[in-house]
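Postdoc handover notes: sequence design on the structure in folder B. Input tokens:
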């Protein structure tokens, strides 16, 4: 019994030692260079990937802006169309009555002349091909879009590198359990914020890679 207990104790101590070795934090001296540290995250999306996700989700990419400008210019090629429909049932004509008898026309359905006419009008404003009020409006809104794009790109880039710095800190300095929990929650927070700017594309990219 004593021998079995001793063997069990040795096995338990060995398991604890193995776990402790696996949980040992990495230090700067364990890596040969900064590239070796950052190589641990090469499977994650790059900052350029994040920026493209932001542009796609917010619809502020240059191709959208250029498309709006092109559409506002080509819109002047379309004419202003008006369609007029006329219906004449003949009730507007004159009738002569003598002694209560219709002498010139008989008031009957067969004597009513029904007429239908459709007229279409097309109007072009050639000056709008050069600069229209619609194009001016789009240019003004485009400037607002560019400002919004710069703002969200700056914020997403900042969040990306805040997250990367935290990942490096977690990798090289694990710390105590309290610090680990704090860092993990902060990592989840930064990931969620990047998801908010990319419409969830960031987490999907992490899962794929």
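Designed sequence:
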């Amino acid at each position: 019994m004593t021998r079995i207990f001793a063997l069990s104790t040795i096995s338990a101590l060995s398991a604890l030692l193995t776990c402790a070795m696996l949980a040992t934090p990495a230090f700067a001296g364990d890596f040969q260079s900064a590239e070796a540290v950052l190589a641990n995250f090469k499977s994650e999306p790059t900052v350029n990937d994040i920026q493209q996700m932001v542009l796609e989700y917010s619809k502020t990419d240059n191709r959208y802006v250029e498309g709006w400008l092109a559409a506002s210019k080509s819109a002047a090629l379309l004419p202003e169309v008006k369609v007029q429909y006329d219906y004449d049932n003949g009730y507007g004509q004159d009738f002569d009555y003598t002694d209560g008898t219709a002498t010139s026309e008989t008031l009957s359905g067969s004597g009513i002349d029904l007429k239908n006419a459709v007229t279409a009008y097309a109007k072009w404003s050639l000056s709008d091909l050069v600069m229209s009020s619609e194009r001016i409006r789009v240019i003004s809104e485009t400037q607002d879009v560019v400002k919004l794009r710069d703002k969200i790109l700056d914020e997403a880039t900042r969040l990306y590198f805040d997250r990367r710095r935290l990942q490096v800190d977690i990798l090289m300095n694990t710390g105590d359990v309290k610090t680990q929990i704090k860092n993990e929650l902060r990592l989840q927070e930064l990931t969620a914020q990047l998801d908010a700017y990319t419409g969830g594309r960031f987490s999907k990219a992490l899962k794929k890679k």
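Context for whoever picks this up: Residues 1-7, 12-25, 102-111 have pLDDT under 50 and may be disordered. Don't rerun without checking with the PI first.
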